[in-house]
Design goal:
ABC3_permease_C, 27 helices, alpha+beta, about 55% helix, elongated, single chain, 4 domains, Membrane_comp_ABC_pdt, 21 strands, cell membrane, transmembrane helix, 6-stranded mixed β-barrel
Length: about 850
């Protein structure tokens, strides 16, 4: 028979409507909708960043220098290249106000600007006054504006005075919005805006202190950004300049959005895999009802290929329908929720119907439908003309022919390859794919073990009919225990893994804070201030430890004479500037793993000691030549030792340490970490900041809170994605319960005929749901903990801790969801008269 005949047969089968395929469509549509929605939001943000690149950056292009201002020659190049230029200085400081019991201080991220700022966009203030007037000040004091949260923290109102370093300023307005805030990145404190010239006598911008300068430029209308970028690289080679332009005005946010959306798409794929189980179960149940039809067609001469093609076409049409529904939901949802999303997003977004994410979601849906329907469809070949009985499919061989197994493997590899390409993260995709396959394998084995244990337990439940009935039902392969454990278990596994990862990251940041982390980081301590700084702390019995070190910042530009990124790729050490220190002896807490430290009186060519783990990741070896740009000066040093650096303690740690003579003459400041009892922290800050107003104190607990808040937002986003997986699993569970309703109706009729009352039967139905839910929850808990451990260990490289509160919640969720679904489809069978059921079965 031909494919045309198969098409005619499929069309006739489809006349029966969507009966039996509602769960099929819902599972497929939900998974596709989640992936399409995440991709659409990502595309909207990317479009917004591209469209508003100049506004986000504050100009067409930006040149950034670390801890120095541009010199006259560099300024001249920028002025010749641009139509207009603005200088912005960014650093941290302490805002100080008088208090009833002494000065009160709060950490603030200061942006000092010139008269040309902002080149693009406008600053929004309350009251609505021009920024120029606000920064002019009054009463002989320069003006400043700050974010309302900082005003509330310090109890400030417009017209009040405060200090930055030794400079007193007057607060003239509340800062509501900056046009370039997205490009400034993550800050440890709320923003204060002031003129740079007002800080000349503040002591905050001394040589060696920690600040960065950004020069924004408006380029001629016909300027080619690629050409200007190339000319800037040539003109500023070896100066440590970093270039950004309007093509990607907020690169940090863009990269973060891409990585988060890639992770969410993979979480969505997990939900699609859960839906795939429902798709497979629906196809199996449908084909089981078509056994007699298939056998009849075989009797009339239909061959295997025609039968397979008939139902493949039918399932394919329904799959396209489900995918179309999912694409409609996923494409329209961001449009409908655009006002809400725009108000919540910290960056501009242009919401529209974007074809790329919809195409990606459609491909994911098609491949998932193919993978999860191929084996059930292949089993139609086992129905022969002589097997006109109902259980033909259930008694078929468990594995189809080799060609279908190979096709399934090829489809799975194609899905993983496309997911790697679309997400841009092969490692994360492979981990996710491997985790899903492993989870499905474990859940399948668990479902088989649960049936065997239930069968063994029936003999032990004599005298307890309710328990015996429940265990007997679970042990029956036709009861759907496998579908329940697979669908609900996988959905709960994703949720459990997300919960464990989130909890582990939070613990890694703050879990052991009182035991291992310092109370404060102090930065911008001048060399002549170190004796007084140390004396105050050493005389305080509440201070248990002080660590201090000279601090510079440098950018690794070359490795063995080649561009650093060509050698070590996109390693995090190469992303921006890194801390550099010097010391005569190895730090007390460092352990050399290779090489030797320089002699105390060494004064030869520069040498550098590097963090061992990072060196291994970057492919560095002893003897390599590293070129580090520090304050616009290239220093090429030989790698002579490797040492362990533990960054997990939140204490002091440097990737690079050089011999002292290598950095002789370079202006720098010192940093220090102070370990003290919590009740003494306020007095330490008051005394040190009062004596040295230029230094900045960063309270570690406050920094932890800000990072934890960021993690909370990420965890919420991933939890929503995992929630889609769980919802899909619940739909599959409903489908399995609905499919088993006729069997429960018949079972209830037999039991009632034999004298069982409705309460006992209902308790039996409830008990089997509880047992299956508990089993699914426990297996999901094991899989989730295993997945969380793998991600924490091999991706985030942090110590894993089981979050038991989340773990127990997963088990309870499994019990509750299964019980609700089971009882919802158990009440109707109990209301039907037994005689009516038994008479219909004759």
């Amino acid at each position: 028979m031909s494919l045309r005949m198969a098409g005619r047969l499929a069309r006739r089968e489809l006349r029966g409507g969507l009966s039996g395929f509602r769960i099929f469509l819902a599972c497929l549509a939900l998974g596709v909708a989640a992936i399409a929605a995440v991709g659409s939001v990502r595309q909207a943000i990317q479009a917004g960043l591209a469209q508003e690149g100049a506004s986000l950056l504050g100009g067409d292009a930006e040149l950034e220098f670390t801890y120095r201002f541009a010199d006259e020659a560099e300024r001249a190049w920028m002025q010749q290249t641009s139509v207009q230029m603005s200088e912005v200085v960014d650093f941290r400081s302490m805002a100080v106000v008088p208090g009833a019991t002494g000065p009160e201080r709060a950490l603030t991220q200061v942006k000092s600007v010139d008269n040309a700022y902002p080149l693009v966009g406008s600053v929004r203030l309350e009251p609505e006054i021009p920024l120029e007037d606000a920064l002019n000040g009054s009463f002989g004091l320069p003006g400043a504006v700050m974010e309302p949260v900082l005003m509330d923290r310090l109890g400030l109102s417009v017209g009040d005075r405060f200090s930055l370093g030794t400079q007193e300023l007057i607060l003239t307005a509340a800062l509501l919005d900056e046009p370039d805030s997205a490009a400034d990145g993550f800050g440890l404190g709320p923003r204060t805006l002031v003129r740079t010239e007002a800080l000349q006598a503040s002591g905050l911008l001394e040589p060696g202190t920690l600040f960065s300068t950004k020069y924004r430029m408006i380029l001629p209308r016909n300027a080619d950004l690629s050409d200007v970028s190339a000319r800037a690289d040539a003109a500023f080679e070896g100066t440590g300049m970093r270039w950004t332009d309007a093509r990607n005005g907020a690169p940090g946010i863009s990269e973060f959005v891409n990585r988060l959306s890639a992770f969410l798409v993979l979480v969505g794929l997990s939900g699609l895999a859960v839906g795939g189980i429902g798709v497979s179960a629906a196809v199996r149940a449908y084909l089981a009802q078509k056994t007699e039809t298939v056998a009849t067609l075989r009797t009339l001469g239909a061959d295997r290929a025609t039968i397979f093609q008939t139902y493949m076409i039918q399932i394919g049409v329904l799959s396209v329908l489900g995918i179309a529904i999912g694409l409609t939901l996923g494409g329209l949802a961001p449009l409908v929720l655009a006002p809400l999303l725009e108000s919540q997003l910290p960056v501009p977004a242009v919401f529209s119907l974007y074809p790329q994410p919809l195409i990606e979601a459609a491909i994911y849906g098609l491949l998932t439908a193919f993978l999860f329907t191929l084996w059930p469809l292949a089993r139609t070949e086992d129905v022969r003309a002589a097997t006109l009985f109902r259980d033909a499919l259930s008694s078929a061989r468990p594995f189809p022919r080799l060609i279908y197994v190979v096709a399934t493997g090829a489809g799975l590899l194609l899905l993983i390859a496309l997911a790697s390409w679309f997400s841009g993260s092969t490692r994360l995709t492979v981990w996710t794919g491997g985790g899903l396959v492993g989870a499905l394998a474990l859940l399948t084995l668990a479902a088989y073990a649960i049936r065997k244990l239930a069968r063994a337990g029936t003999s032990l439940a004599r005298g307890r009919p309710t328990v015996r009935w429940a265990l007997s039902a679970i042990s029956d392969p036709r009861e759907g225990a496998g579908s329940v454990v697979l669908s609900l278990g996988l959905g709960l596994s994703v949720l459990a893994a997300v919960g464990q990862i989130d909890g582990t990251l939070r613990n890694a940041i703050s879990g052991n804070l009182p035991d291992v982390a310092p109370s404060y980081f102090f930065v911008d301590i001048q060399k002549d201030q170190m004796p007084g700084f140390t004396e105050r702390l050493q005389s305080d019995p509440a201070v248990s430890r002080i660590e201090s070190a000279p601090m510079l910042r440098g950018i690794i530009t070359q490795i063995n004479g080649q561009p650093a990124q060509d050698v070590a790729g996109d390693h995090w050490v190469l992303e921006g500037d890194r801390g550099v220190t010097y010391s005569v002896q190895p730090p007390p807490n460092a352990r050399l793993t290779a090489g030797e430290w320089w002699a105390e009186d060494y004064a030869g060519a520069p040498q550098v000691s590097f963090a061992a783990e990072e060196a291994e990741e970057m492919g560095l070896n002893l003897g390599d030549q590293l070129t580090v740009n520090i304050l616009g000066r290239d220093i090429t040093a030989e790698l002579t030792s490797l040492r362990e650096v533990d960054f997990s303690t939140a204490g002091m740690g440097f990737v690079m340490s050089m011999n002292p003579s290598a950095l002789a003459g370079a202006p720098h400041s010192f940093i220090a970490t102070v370990y003290a009892e919590e009740q003494a922290e306020a007095a330490i800050l008051r005394d040190l900041a009062g004596q040295f107003p230029n230094i900045t104190a960063i309270r570690v607990r406050d920094a932890i809170d800000r990072v934890s808040g960021l993690l909370a937002g990420i965890a919420a986003a991933t939890s929503y994605g995992a929630g889609v997986s769980l919802l899909t699993g619940f739909l599959v569970l409903i489908g399995a319960a609905a499919a088993g309703e006729p069997a429960r109706r018949y079972e209830a009729a037999i039991l009632r005929t034999l004298g069982a009352d409705r309460g006992s039967i209902l308790r039996s139905f409830g008990l089997r749901s509880v047992l299956l839910g508990a089993a699914a929850g426990c297996v999901a808990l094991f899989v989730g903990i295993l997945g969380g451990w793998a991600v924490a260990t091999y991706i985030f490289d942090t110590e894993f801790t089981v979050i038991w509160s989340s773990a127990f919640g997963i088990v309870l969720a499994g019990i509750g969801v299964t019980l609700c679904a089971g009882l919802a489809f158990a009440l109707r069978p109990l209301s039907v008269r037994p005689a009516r059921i038994l008479r219909a079965s004759d």
